[in-house]
TrEMBL record:
CC terms in the record's Gene Ontology section: centrosome; cytoplasm
Listed transmembrane segments: none
Presence of the UniProt keyword Zinc in the record: no
Name under which the protein is recorded: Protein Daple
Amino acid sequence: MKLHLGSQPASNVRRSCDERGSRLNQLVTDHEALQRLHQQLTREYDSLVKEQNHLKGDHKTLKLEHKDMKERQNNMSASEDDLLKLREVLELEMSKLKSDSNTLANLRNEHSRLKDDFRSLFSANEKLRTEYKSLQGDYKSIKTENNTVKLRLTELSGS
């Protein structure tokens, strides 16, 4: 830098030097502020990079968890479908069992009625058998009497 002191008065030179000194101090202050800002931004950047790496790991973990959960959901959906099918089968079986239970009750009633009918028929049969035996006895005695009467008639006719 060249200074031309001869043409300017001393107060101007001093003012110019003061202005330059003031500008220099301002530039140094600005430089220091920029260095502090640079350091702060560098720390923040490093912190953000660490956070990004951490988030990348979390993202990867979450993707794996999501995949696992999707598989579990599919398995649960399949299990739910299986359970619904089993429920339908069980409901069908229950309706069959109810029907069978009703049929069994009807069969028991029918069996009871048939037993009563059988007892009635058995007792009527016993009466008929007793009456038949009685009639057989009557028949034998009437036949014997008839034979005796025939024999007597023959004797009376022949003599």
